[in-house]
Design goal:
Radius of gyration: 34 Å
Structural class: alpha+beta
Strand content: 15-25%
Distance between the termini: 49 Å
Largest sheet: 8 strands, mixed
């Protein structure tokens, strides 16, 4: 038997007839017998009759197969693809079980930052753990991989320096450096100490770590210090690393004014270190240059907002003075707000003294002392305290003197004019924003470095190294996926190096419309990773077949485009 379909045209319409027929022979002739007219059945039913007559086995849709397991795949597959592009495995070291675990720790820090124990449990619930056969890794094996990784740190960072700090890739020989801190849980680690907390966790012990980046903010090296280490000491340490470990004798270090101090510069000169620097002056040094008869006078900025000069206090250096009117207005506004806030704290005390409910110079002074410098404005307010009197008044002269320097900053450098033009000096100094961006990503936005719960020194160092390597992947992923996120793809080159950086018109439009120029929805980097995680790999067992067949869910247009931007198809497996 078979289904025969015939069609006929009538008045621009096509009519199909589906007949169930039996074929048989009468002598030498083949004849057909119509058994039923199937034309009134739905097309799906007719196709089912055809399949049965061909000998195919028909089963119910809910009984044809079983999905025995579904694992998130798209997010780890994308990060793994980027890790392969940047040759991360080769960077970490020779093939071994510890390298696989170290790779998994780095990729996991990008996809799902969590504690090591939580990460270990998560591996069995994602294709990362299944494909690398690490889903059943023990806690001791994970910690052993961390120890293996930190032992490889010098080799890893030397390889990164060769990639990104060589003359070929870094013709200006620039490197960015800054220091940050993160608080610790527990107090058993020898590195744990109280110091200046950049996380505003003054009540907790912390560690500090210095990050060395190339001129575009790509991480090269990270060094962990005790929590009470000062910026200048950390800078001298990284100079030794650059010279001895990386073998870079000619480099220009870029750091902020707290990092590269006059004392550190003097130490470099005494050591005859062939390293240049770009940094800035502190406020007292700027005020000294602006004193009457000094080189830093308002007339410098009559026609331009950038001026270059030298001074005997800074031999063999160039000073580049800049004035940013927008920064000046912001500082003036902020100072006025702080002064008003301080006066609001002092007013109730003055009222209590006037009402005779607060008496005695000691009692009045105690009250005033608790609030006078809460907003860091004691330098601008003159206080007078008697046994039954209390007055305060603004130091108008001092405020005016400070206001005259609002928006002015001075960049100092040891480089020659033929190495860096004055405008380039300012641009290079402002590129420290790349290190700040790295810290934000490592600590909060993407990689959740803090708090640190390890107690052994090497485990703490390994934890920070994993975060740095994870940011190395994030740095590349953000650029690859700029089209799908709010990242500015066409950041304009500023004509004025002193002016604030501006987003391009295209980026502003993309942020407002929440879609790019091709009308494709855009999102944040984190949300894009989360969306990729909805692309799962299913282990399917079909009825009558014993084998497990891995199948991916159909990728969404955004997921498909994310992999296209990485230059790969959506892989079925990681290995």
């Amino acid at each position: 038997m078979h289904v025969a379909t015939t069609s006929r045209h009538y008045k621009d319409k096509v009519y199909e007839t589906h007949l169930l027929r039996r074929s048989y022979r009468e002598g030498a002739k083949v004849k057909n017998e119509t058994l039923a007219n199937l034309s009134h059945l739905p097309a799906e039913a007719i196709d089912a009759v055809r399949s049965v007559l061909r000998g195919e086995r028909m089963v119910r849709a809910d009984e044809g197969f079983d999905i025995v397991r579904s694992l998130p795949h798209g997010d780890v597959a994308a990060v793994w693809a980027m890790a392969r592009q940047v040759d991360l495995a080769k960077l970490l070291g020779p093939p071994c079980a510890q390298r696989d675990l170290a790779m998994a720790l780095v990729v996991s820090r990008v996809v799902r930052p969590a504690s090591k124990l939580s990460t270990k449990r998560w591996w069995s619930d994602t294709t990362l753990g299944v494909d690398l056969s690490i889903g059943d890794a023990s806690t001791d094996e994970v910690y052993a991989a961390m120890d293996w990784l930190v032992d490889r740190q010098d080799a890893i960072e030397t390889a990164l320096a060769r990639r990104h700090l060589s003359i070929k890739d870094n013709p200006r020989r620039l490197a960015l450096y800054d220091l940050s801190s993160s608080w610790m849980e527990g107090s058993c680690c020898p590195l744990s100490a109280r110091g200046y907390s950049r996380d505003h966790k003054g009540g907790k012990a912390q560690i500090e770590y210095g990050l060395l980046c190339d001129p575009v903010g790509r991480p090269i090296s990270v060094k962990v210090f005790p929590g009470n280490t000062g910026d200048p000491s950390a800078f001298i340490d990284v100079v030794k690393t650059v010279r001895s470990s990386f073998g870079l004798e000619h480099l220009v270090m870029v750091g902020d004014r707290g990092m590269i101090t006059s004392a550190r510069i003097a130490a470099l000169k005494e050591a005859k270190a062939n390293l240049g620097w770009v940094t800035s002056l502190r406020a007292p040094a700027i005020a000294k240059l602006a004193q009457e008869g000094g080189p830093l006078q308002p007339s410098l900025f009559d026609e331009t907002n950038l001026a270059t000069f030298t001074h005997p206090d800074y031999p063999d250096e160039r000073l580049v003075a800049c004035r940013n009117p927008l920064l000046a207005a912001e500082r003036t506004r902020k100072r006025e707000e702080l002064l008003v806030a301080t006066e609001e704290l002092l007013a109730p005390i003055a009222a209590a003294v006037s009402a005779k409910t607060l008496r005695g110079a000691d009692a009045i002074g105690l009250k005033v002392g608790k609030v006078i410098n809460r907003r860091k404005m004691a330098k601008h307010i003159e206080i007078s305290i008697g046994e039954d009197t209390f007055t305060y008044v603004r130091k108008s002269g001092q405020i005016e003197a400070e206001a005259a320097l609002d928006g002015i900053y001075v960049v100092r450098t040891s480089t020659e004019a033929n190495e860096l033009e004055p405008s380039d000096v300012v641009t290079v100094y402002k590129s420290l924003a790349g290190v700040e961006r790295a810290f934000r990503s490592m600590k909060a936005d993407d990689l959740d470095l803090r708090p640190i719960r390890h107690h052994l020194e090497d485990r703490v160092r390994s934890h920070v190294l994993i975060a740095m390597l994870a940011y190395y992947l994030v740095w590349h992923l953000r650029r690859a996926w700029a089209e799908l996120t709010f990242t500015d793809e066409e950041r304009p080159t500023p004509t004025d190096p002193v002016a604030p950086a501006r987003r391009s018109a295209a980026a502003t439009k993309k942020a407002a419309r929440k879609e790019n120029a091709d009308e494709v929805p855009v999102t944040s980097f984190g949300d894009l990773l989360e969306h990729l995680g909805t692309l799962v790999r299913n282990d399917v067992v079909f009825t009558g077949a014993g084998a497990v067949v891995p199948m991916l869910t159909a990728p969404t247009p955004t997921q498909r485009r994310a992999f296209e931007l990485l230059g790969v198809a959506v892989p079925l497996t990681l290995t």
